[in-house]
Structure formats: C-alpha cells, structure tokens
Amino acid sequence: MKTEHLQGCQVATPHQIVELAWKLACGMRKEGRFGTVIDLGAGDARFSGAVQAYDSYIGLEIDKTKVQGLALPKHARIKITDALKWSGKDFDLCIGNPPYIRHHKLDPKWRAAVLAQIEKESGVSLKRTANLFVMFLMQALLRTQENGLVLQVVPYEWVTRPSAKELREFINKNKWNVTVLRFNTDIFPQVLTTASITIIDKSTRNGIWSFGEIGSDGTVSMRAHSSGSNKAVLTYEERQGDLYGLRGLSPGGQEFFVLTESERLHYSLKKRIDVTPCVTSLREFPVDESELNVANFQKYYVEAGKRCWLIRSDKDVISSQLRLYLDSVGDKWKKYSTCTNREIWSRYRPHPVPALLLSSGFVGKGPKVIINTVKAIAAGAVYGIISLGARRPESIAEKLRKIDFQQQVVSHANNLKKLEVGQLNSVLTELNS
Predict the structure, then answer these.
(1) What pLDDT is recorded for position 412?
(2) Which of 93, 267, 289, 304: disulfide with 325, CB 3.0–4.6 Å?
(3) By three-state DSSP, how is residue 109 classified?
(4) Which DSSP state fits 379?
(5) How far apart are CA 234 and CA 231, in angstroms?
(6) Nearest C-alpha neighbor of 129 from the set 106, 103, 107
C-alpha cells in the first residue's frame, strides 16, 4: 500500500462513536462482554479503552508511528503488522474502524496477494474493484470464531454496491444475521461517504438483514429497506436493447485529455477535428435548464473556463497540432494505469454521443437529466443515455424526471446520493418495456 494513500485513510474514530460501538456490541451478547477481541487496523488503539468489556484485546496496525508511546490498558497489546496478511483466528469479537481506500489507489501486487489469501481460506473471490474496507470486513469474518461477532464502522454503501456482492453472498450463504445502522449525522466531515455501524452476528443462522438509522447519541430508528425508505433499492442490470445508460468516459487523466478553452486556443486545436465538446460535471449547470445547446455550452462551460474539450487522440490520424500537444504532456500520463495499460498511451476507446446527459450524484428527488443537443461526450461522473431507436429525447427525459430516485438509492455522503449505472439501466429497461 502506498504511504500517501495510507496516511490519507487514517481517520480517527470519535470517542463518542467508540463508546457507542462498544455499547452495541455488548448488547449483542447475554453476558455483555467478550473474552478475546481483535481490532484490524487499530490506529491509536482507542477501541482498547473499554476494559470492562473484554478479557484481552489485540490491535493490528501497520503504521508504527500511530502507536509509539501509547499507554495501553493492562490486557491490551498492539502488533505492528499488515492486518490483511495476518492469520490469527477464533476471536470472540472483531471491532474497529478499518481504513477507507478505493481500489484504484491500492498497490496491484499487494492487492492480488491479499485477495488470493482470502480466496484460499474462504473460497470467496472478491472483485479487484472492492474497496479496502470490504477486504477488512471479509478478514474480520475469517478471524472471528464460529459464533463470533463482527462490529465495524464502515461506509454504508457496501450493502448494495456490486463491488461488495461476493461478500454479501458469503454472508448469506452462512445465514448470519446482519444489522446495518446508517449514521444520520456526519461523524467524519473530512471523508466523502456515509458512515454506518455494521454488525454481523455469526452466532445466528436466520439470514436476516436489518437496516436503520442511528444518531451519534445512539438513538436508533429501524427502516424497512436499505434505501432508508419504504421502497426497495433499485436493482442492478446490464444494458439491454437500444436504450441504455453508459458510464462516463475515463480516458485516464482529465488534466490532459479534457482541455479548457484557453488551453485549446494555446495549442491551436480545432473544434470537431482536434477536440470535441465534453461534459465532466453537471454541478454548475442551472437546475432550470433542460437542454445543453450551443449557447448554454458556450456560457456555462467554455466562457466559464471549465474543462470541456475532449482531445480526439482516439482517431487513426491526428493533426500535427494535436501531435505537438500530446508531445507537450511529456511523461505525466505514466501516473495513470489506464494510460500505461494501453499500447499507445493516448489512444483511448471512444464513447458514442449520448442523447441525454445525467449526473450520477444528486441531492433531492433525482439527478439532473439534460438533453444533449450540442452532442457532448459524457465523461467522469456524468452518465450518457444512448438511444438508438426513434424515441424523442424529450420524452425519455420527462419520464426520468418524474421518478423519485431518492427513495430507491442509498446515501453516498451526507445528503448526496449516487445512482449507479446498473441501476440506471434497470430503470431504462423498465421504461423501454
């Protein structure tokens, strides 16, 4: 794991949340305490403070600077090691707040070794796109005893995201009971995610999943579905037919694949030849506008200095001006694996021009749905809706705007919700039928 990424994920758990986690854990057992406790990614070992709740505690921490000079309780100790390569087992409880690092920031060789070890021990092949905390949850299940308890402070998103599907299937196969309580307050302001307390009880074999909201004071309100409403979360489907959603283009570094107007002029790149309109965000696009036409593209993107011109380095033949621009990039592209994995670093696979643009993240009833008259390419967090039939884009947009997405999508961060492209495709399939 890269040092800068390790340091970026080290977010201390507020003491109030530590106490709340212990209260919930002890409430799950008749005796109200545990014999042996393991804390994976222990940080400064603040979960060791509940001395009345355990006989022995061991925290695993890879960063020795986090534990230097710590005064630990009598029956607690810290081991400096990689928690995901450790093989101890049969603990009564695994409690803690594992690190949050997305898959693309993990060292590929380290990740491959950890995933191989998990598969060897459990038979479960986690996706390479699984977030680091998903791997920690799996490790917690492997390190606790047959009737053990796992309680982790983790992002709520794992209950529906495809990248955690194998973990959920493993839990369901063993019929363990799961309770996931989403925090209704922002306990980690510096992290863009919605936190939860996830409890997996291996002593039960009912296969029941329960969902609710929890305040920092411990007040719990149960909900019927993981969406937090009375409606089930939208399912994930592959694209079908001639109406489908497409994830935004990720050519490998917007800083040099998508240019501002001033950069385009500086390098003398021609519109529709060297560059084409592109939208990487709809955040600044007015909510009362429904169409991205030439005038709106000029006003809200070109004149606003946004990155809005996608270079056409995907073509077989490029101009001398575009070649000079690509040469000016130097070796900056080497920091992007997307570029290094291509024979020609700049030769990305093009996306079709979508009929509609849709923001993946949203606040309120649903995402922005914009008619794409200017024929911009959707990139980054903007999805494209491809319509190969004779449907009017206005009709599709009108139907999508009437859907109450917020009732069917889990919270991503605070009030922000995120629609996955698979969920969009399930909606489009229904509209198409």
Answers:
(1) 73
(2) 267
(3) helix
(4) B
(5) 9
(6) 103
CA-based Rg of the chain, rounded to a whole angstrom? 24
pLDDT in tens, 177-202: 999 999 988 877 666 578 999 999 99
What pLDDT does 184 receive?
87
Assigned architecture for domain 3-223: 3-Layer(aba) Sandwich (3.40)
Mean pLDDT of 122-129: 95
Q: What are phi and psi of 194, to 5 degrees?
A: -95, 120
Query: ∠ CA(273), CA(274), CA(279), 5° rounding?
Result: 100
Residues 6+ apart with CB under 8 A from 272: none
Whole-angstrom distance, CA of residue 129 vs CA of residue 166: 12
The secondary structure of residue 359, as a DSSP letter, is E
Task: Look at 68-82, 219-233, 245-259 and tell me which has the smallest mean pLDDT.
Answer: 219-233
Q: Where are the beta strands (DSSP E) in 81-185?
A: 91-96, 144-155, 177-183
CA end-to-end span of the chain: 46
Burial class (CB in 10 A: 0-12, 13-18, 19+), 402: exposed
At 5 the pLDDT is 45
3-state secondary structure of 397: helix
Alpha helices in 1-93 (DSSP H): 3-8, 15-27
284 contact partners, CB below 8 Å, separation of at least 6? 300, 304, 306
SS3 readout for 302-318:
HCCCCCCEEECCCCCCC
Judge residue 183's burial from the number of C-beta atoms within 10 Å of its C-beta, 0-12 exposed, 13-18 middle, 19 or more buried.
buried
- In order, the DSSP letters of 234-292 are PPP----TTEEEEPPB--S-HHHHEE-HHHHHHTTPPBTTTEEEEES--TTS-TT--B-
- Helix or strand or coil: residue 181? strand
CA 313 to chain centre: 29
Residue ranges per domain, the chain?
3-223, 243-432
Counting every residue written for the chain, the total comes to 433
Phi, psi at residue 86, to the nearest 5°? -85, 145
pLDDT in tens, 367-415: 999 999 999 999 999 999 999 988 899 999 999 999 999 999 887 776 7
Mean pLDDT of 19-23: 97
- pLDDT, residue 69, reads 83
